[in-house]
Design a protein that fits this description.
Rossmann fold, 171 residues
Length: 171
C-alpha cells in the first residue's frame, strides 16, 4: 500500500486531499465480495480496483464504472474483457497470470542450483489448476520440480511450508 500511495502522489493524487480510497477485505470469505462490489456500484465510485476473484464480483455489479483488476486468469477466456487489444466494457487487466511462467524462469536463473521450487496458490482464486499447469511447463523445461502448495488462509502457510520441507527432492 505505501508504494501504491506513492505512485498516486507522483501523479498528483493525495489521499484525503483530492482522492479518497476505500478498502474492503474479504479475509478469505469470498461470499462477501458481491456485497462489496454492489456497495461501490450503488455509490457510483469513480473506479474499482479489484484483485483475484473480486474482479468477477465487480464486473457483475457494474457495466459502467471502470474496473482495474489483477487476476491469475486469462481475462478474455473468463469473459471479463472482449480482447486484450480492445477490452471494451469497463475492465482493464494487469495480466498477472501470463507472467508466472516468466517469473519462474527468472527465479530459476537467479538460483540455478535449485532443483525444487514451491508455488503458493489459493485454490479459491480461479483458475488455479491452469496456473499450476503453466508454471509446471516452465519447470519441466528447466528440469526443476514444482511443488504447488495450496494455501486457503493465513493459518495454512505454516503447514504448507512444513510439507514442502519434508518433500525436498535430492540433489
Amino acid at each position: 500500500m505505501p508504494a501504491f500511495r506513492e505512485g498516486l502522489r507522483e501523479q498528483g493524487y493525495i489521499e484525503g486531499q483530492n482522492v479518497t480510497i476505500e478498502y474492503r477485505w474479504a479475509e478469505g470469505d469470498y461470499d462477501r465480495l458481491p456485497a462489496f462490489a454492489d456497495e461501490f456500484a450503488s455509490r457510483k465510485v469513480d473506479v474499482i480496483l479489484a484483485t483475484g476473484p473480486s474482479s468477477a464480483a465487480a464486473k457483475a455489479a457494474t457495466s459502467t464504472i471502470p474496473i482495474v483488476f489483477t487476476s491469475g486468469s486469462d481475462p478474455v477466456a473468463d469473459g471479463r474483457v472482449a480482447s486484450l487489444a480492445h477490452p471494451g466494457g469497463n475492465g482493464v487487466s494487469f495480466l498477472t497470470g501470463e507472467l508466472y511462467p516468466k517469473r519462474f524462469e527468472l527465479i530459476s536463473e537467479m538460483v540455478p542450483q535449485t532443483r525444487t521450487i514451491g508455488l503458493l496458490v489459493n485454490p479459491n482464486q480461479l483458475p488455479t489448476e491452469d496456473l499450476i499447469r503453466q508454471v509446471a511447463v516452465a519447470a519441466s523445461a528447466r528440469d526443476v520440480e514444482l511443488k504447488a502448495l495450496k494455501v486457503f488462509t493465513d493459518s495454512d502457510f505454516e503447514t504448507a511450508f512444513a510439507r514442502s520441507k519434508k518433500s525436498k527432492r535430492p540433489r
